[in-house]
TrEMBL record:
Gene3D superfamilies: 3.30.1360.40, DNA gyrase/topoisomerase IV, subunit A, C-terminal, Topoisomerase II, domain 5, Topoisomerase, domain 3
Name of this chain's protein: DNA gyrase subunit A
Catalysis: reaction(s): ATP-dependent breakage, passage and rejoining of double-stranded DNA
Oligomeric and partner information: Heterotetramer, composed of two GyrA and two GyrB chains. In the heterotetramer, GyrA contains the active site tyrosine that forms a transient covalent intermediate with DNA, while GyrB binds cofactors and catalyzes ATP hydrolysis.
Length: 856
């Protein structure tokens, strides 16, 4: 024994390291090679090998059935060196309509049932492809995917299939690896294709946005998903839990009620369920059931549960949900292998992986077709040369000693390639006829058109996307199916909104982005010209930019200068005192760096008859249906495409009664035009020109939507000067014009700050840059003509200026009429730096109107 290792190197290895290394190798083998699906084609290795083996056997959906044993033999002999039982079980599952949302194998014979019956032996059953499997393997012979060596390095097998359908989400997958597990539910193919089409147009689409198309899992056995929270969690994080209930209806027979189960939760064994119900009834753990029987047939499931005369079906159903698999929990884990690494995906990530895979497949297919077309064109070019010089070609061939000699002489004489010279030697004499010559030329021209088209696909991302869309549309037409699983809201998921009283609030936001809400009763009314109350304590470099009155249950839409739109419920804004600073908006919504909120719009619904009008600093206007913003998501959406050096100034909701849009500029211009001059556009569009400026330094400061010309507009300047003017005085013009004068400006007035639609049934609230707020009765502000300056509404100090105006419900006896309080739109403001010092004004303005500049 001592001489046994004399001539061999002995390496000391730590047994702990050896075990660790071996176990890691085993773990990765199980993870990558057996238990987990690939994110690209959605298949585990065994399923992929079964389909590829059937492809080798030419088992299309139109081919004759072949014995399942033949397929299993090919799979284990060529690609999958494991037990035949595991391979056959995988094949059987792919043929079961109650296991797969879209079966991949068309089985003939006994392939099991929902009662848990096992399939017949593989020697008895027969199989072939379903039509959808053909699309999963389509173009595999065109070098669209990578091939790897099989287990004994004698054959090649695909590492992934070039599927045209999102198989992973369509049929789902379950598997337990080492230290991890996957459990992906099946989905409706129509919904998946619609979501994929959407994400092709909107690559940054979020899970919440995709849920407009994908309602949730769609199980092949139907049933009802109870509650949406688990779906939302799963699509946003990759993990969630959904409850599935059996679908039933109630029948009556005399005075007795009968519960009939029409559909069962996914993967529930019907026979065991009936047995369990019978045992629970026998043991009196569930009261009120007199009989349970199975009346299912080939048309579907029908489990009859007869109740006693005094039994209530709702109570019995609740007990059945609690004690039996009539309600089950499906724990979703969107785990799959991507680039040989396991990863938990979100819904958008999985669809993007599928799209990326399709792009790769189409590019490789295009390159394959292009090379094939070029090779054929190359031969045709040689044949054309031969036909054009046929006499000399024949002479050279006849004078040659053999084929090799003829090839060399042809190549030397006409500059041909070896392939072309060989094609000329192989050419039949029949190709010399005039008709054959015409066919040759037509084939060549057709090939050149194909080559040009294929090359254009490789150069254009847009064409690539268009091809994917066309293929997805084709798949949708071929395999369209209705949703089987219903989704109902759960009463257990009570929204916190139901526990919060719906009452009016004043919401304020400062220049530096601090927001708060204060009960509206905290503010008292003063006379015009008063000094007001401090609405918030701010720092020297901060001031209140805007405020509005809304209700706690309303939704706030935050429109930013960059054209993004975010959502926030009013009750989620912290409530504070009048002098409280508030909370930073960045802690409530996910703003981007350098992004600033320009408008906050409260709304109680997202009716599609309404639209959201956006106005930019450079005078662009755009309308988008409000329903396009109904799907609330934390990351916001793109609301408008902005030009360089442009930004959002304000946004307003238009209703079916809206007639006009009005835009106001800093230098006193205003334009009024029909709302229909701006047609509704999608979110990702630019809009159209709304107003043309007379001066390069001018810009838009505010805008309004008008229902009728009898409404009044209150225009206010920086120095606290304002006036009420009817809309009728601003004559209607065409969109993109210069408009008319909205206010006569001077050093005493400063530039225009904003304009709001008001009436005498409302009060005016004004904020200044140092944080003062004053409430003014609208009746105390005099009406004036369009080309005037107006009267002093509020006195401002030399270092102060008006920064925001808004309207609010009128008070009665210093108390607000809460019941009739209307919500109001936010006011967008711009900060002005005035160099002119305002003249001293008389502070005693309670009993007189100061018309500082007369009318023209």
């Amino acid at each position: 024994m001592e001489n046994l290792f004399e001539n061999q190197d002995i390496i000391d290895i730590n047994i702990e390291d050896s075990v660790k290394s071996s176990y890691l190798d085993y773990s990765m083998s199980v993870i990558i090679g057996r238990a987990l699906p690939d994110a690209k084609d959605g298949l585990k290795p065994v399923h992929r090998r079964i389909l590829f083996a059937m492809h080798d056997l030419n088992m299309s959906a139109r081919a004759p059935y072949k014995k399942s044993a033949r397929i299993v033999g090919d799979v284990i002999g060529k690609y999958h060196p494991h037990g035949d039982t595991s391979v056959y079980d995988a094949l059987v599952r792919m043929a079961q309509s109650f296991s797969m949302r879209e079966p991949l194998i068309d089985g003939q014979g006994n392939f099991g049932s929902v009662d848990g019956d096992s399939a017949a032996a593989m020697r008895y059953t027969e199989s072939r492809f379903t039509k959808i499997s053909e699309d999963i393997l389509k173009d595999i012979d065109k070098d669209t995917v990578n091939f790897t060596a099989n287990y004994d390095d004698t054959l090649k097998e695909p590492s992934v299939l070039p599927t045209r359908v999102p198989t992973l989400l369509m049929n789902g997958s379950e598997g337990i690896a080492v230290g991890m597990a996957t459990k992906i539910p099946p989905h409706n193919l129509n919904e998946l294709l619609d979501a994929t089409m959407h994400i092709l147009d909107n690559p940054e689409a979020t899970a919440d946005e995709l849920m407009e198309f994908i309602q949730g899992p769609d199980f092949p056995t139907g049933g009802t998903i109870f509650g949406r929270r688990g779906i939302i969690d799963a699509y946003n994080t990759g993990r969630g839990r959904v409850r599935i209930r059996a679908k039933h209806h109630i029948e009556t027979r005399g005075k007795k009620e009968i519960i009939v189960l029409d559909e069962l939760p996914y993967q529930v064994n019907k026979a065991r369920l009936i047995e369990l119900i019978a045992n629970l009834t026998k043991d009196k753990q569930i009261e009120g059931i007199s009989e349970v029987r199975d009346e299912s047939d080939r048309d579907g499931i029908r489990v009859v549960i007869e109740l006693k005369k005094d039994a209530m079906s709702e109570i019995v159903m609740n007990n059945l949900y609690k004690s039996t698999p009539m309600e089950t929990t499906f724990g979703i884990i969107l785990l799959a292998v991507y680039n040989k690494e396991p990863k938990v995906f979100t819904l958008p990530e999985l669809l993007n992986v599928f799209i990326s895979h399709r792009k790769t497949v189409i590019i490789r297919r295009t390159i394959f077709d292009l090379e094939k077309a070029k090779a054929r064109a190359h031969i045709l070019e040689g044949l054309k040369i031969a036909l054009d010089n046929i006499d000399e070609v024949v002479k050279i061939i006849r004078a040659s000693a053999n084929d090799s000699d003829a090839k060399e002489k042809l190549e030397l004489r006409f500059g041909l390639s070896p392939i072309q010279s060989q094609a000329i030697l192989d050419m039949r004499l029949g190709r010399l006829t005039g008709l054959q010559r015409d066919k040759l030329e037509a084939e060549y021209q057709e090939l050149m058109a194909i080559i040009a088209e294929l090359e254009s696909i490789l150069k254009s991302e847009e064409k690539l996307v268009e091809i994917i869309k066309e293929e997805l549309s084709e798949i949708r037409e071929k395999y369209s199916s209705k949703r089987l699983t219903d989704i109902e809201d759960s009463y257990d998921e009570i929204d916190i909104e139901d526990l919060i009283p719906n009452e009016p609030m004043v919401v304020t936001i400062t220049h530096n982005g601090y927001v708060k809400r204060v009960p509206i009763k905290s503010y008292e009314k003063q006379r015009r010209g008063g000094k007001g109350k401090v609405a918030v304590t701010t720092h020297d470099d901060d001031f209140i930019e805007r405020f509005f009155v809304t209700n706690t249950h309303d939704t706030l839409m935050f429109v930013t200068n960059m054209g993004q739109l975010y959502w926030l419920k009013v009750y989620r804004i912290p409530e504070g005192s009048r002098t409280a600073k508030g909370k930073a908006v960045v802690n409530l919504i996910n703003l981007r760096p350098d992004e600033k909120i320009m408008e906050i719009i409260p709304t109680s619904d997202f009716d599609e008859s309404k639209s959201l009008a956006f106005f930019t600093r450079n005078g662009v206007v755009k309308r988008t249906s409000l329903s396009e913003f109904s799907n609330i998501r934390s990351n916001g959406v793109r609301a408008i495409v902005l030009d360089d050096a442009d930004e959002i100034v304000t946004a307003k909701i238009t209703t079916p009664s809206t007639q006009y849009l009005m835009i106001f500029t800093s230098l006193g211009q205003c334009i009024r035009f029909d709302v229909e001059k701006t047609r509704e556009q999608g979110r990702s569009t630019r809009g159209v020109r709304g107003i043309k400026f007379k001066h390069d330094t001018d810009f838009v400061v505010d805008a309004n939507v008008v229902d009728n010309i009898e409404q009044e507009l209150l225009t206010v300047s920086q120095k606290g000067i304002g006036k009420r003017t009817t809309v009728e005085e601003y004559r209607e013009t065409n969109r993109a014009g210069s408009g008319v004068i909205s206010m006569k400006l001077s050093a005493k007035t400063g530039n225009v700050v904003g304009a709001v639609l008001v009436d005498e049934a409302q009060d005016l609230m004004i904020l200044t840059s140092i944080g003062k707020m004053i409430r003014v009765d609208m009746q105390t502000i005099r009406k004036a003509g369009r080309n005037t300056s107006g009267v002093i509404i509020v006195n401002v100090d030399a270092k102060d200026k008006v920064v925001s105006i808004a309207k609010c419900p009128k008070e009665d006896d210093d108390e607000l009429d809460i019941e009739n309080a209307d919500t109001m739109d936010g006011i967008n403001l711009d900060e002005f730096n005035l160099k002119d010092k305002p003249e001293e004004e008389n502070n005693d303005t309670n009993n007189k109107e100061d018309n500082i500049l007369g009318e023209d």
